[in-house]
Amino acid sequence: MRLRGICSIAEANEFLKEYLPVYDRCFAKKAAQADNLHRPIPKGLNPHRILCIKTARTVRNDFTIAHDRKVHQIEEAVTTKKVMVEEYTDGSMGIWCRGQKVMFRQITMRPKKLKESQEQSAIPARRKATAPPKDHPWRRLLYVSHKRKKVAA
């Protein structure tokens, strides 16, 4: 097509009308049998799930996954860290976990992250560990059991 100077779709279609019969004569092969040898699809086999793009994804701690630059929220309790995302030929998508399809929705807006000062105020301050006083009953039990071990030895 380049040698003939073809640069539009209309010219290419005209070229194919004369080129395809020549190509078929050179490379076409007749079938060994004229019968249709295709087998029927077995029952229970879903070609929709076979003819799709499958991608493994990791479930985050907030039950979300990232796929195709989008974030999806899984709406069911998932016990595994890995799920399988299936992109079907009609443009739809499914998420599968251990052979079961799970419900999900796309998240359009991510929640805003807290600033460091807000995060620190949300976490309660840790109390300093204190030792019990010397007359505390807990200390008396340890002291008595410790004395008994020395006497028995």
Could you describe the 3D structure shown?
The chain has 153 residues and is of the alpha+beta class. Among the domains are: 1-29, no CATH class; 47-107, no CATH class. It is 30% helix and 22% strand. The chain contains four helices and seven strands; from the N terminus they run ααβββββββαα. It has helices at 9-27, 47-50, 116-122, 137-152; strands spanning 53-58, 64-67, 70-74, 82-87, 93-97, 100-102, 104-107. The strands form two sheets. The chain has a four-stranded antiparallel sheet with strand order 1-4-5-6, with no helix packed on it. It starts with 8 loop residues before the first helix and ends with a helix. 4% of the residues are buried. The mean pLDDT is 85.
Précis, in short:
The chain is an alpha+beta fold and 153 residues long. It has helices at 9-27, 47-50, 116-122, 137-152; strands at 53-58, 64-67, 70-74, 82-87, 93-97, 100-102, 104-107.
Topology at a glance:
Elements: H1 9-27, H2 47-50, E1 53-58, E2 64-67, E3 70-74, E4 82-87, E5 93-97, E6 100-102, E7 104-107, H3 116-122, H4 137-152
Antiparallel strand pairs: 1-4, 2-3, 3-7, 4-5, 5-6
Could you list some keywords that capture this structure?
4 helices; single chain; alpha+beta; 153 residues; four-stranded antiparallel sheet
The secondary structure category is: alpha+beta
Radius of gyration: 36 Å
Largest sheet: 4 strands, antiparallel
Taking all residues together, what is the mean pLDDT? 85
**How are the strands ordered across the major sheet?**
1-4-5-6
> What assembly state would you assign to the polypeptide chains in this entry?
single chain
Number of helices: 4
State the share of residues found in helices, binned by percent.
25-40%
Fraction in beta strands: 15-25%
Spatial gap, N to C terminus: 104 Å
Shape by Cα distribution:
elongated
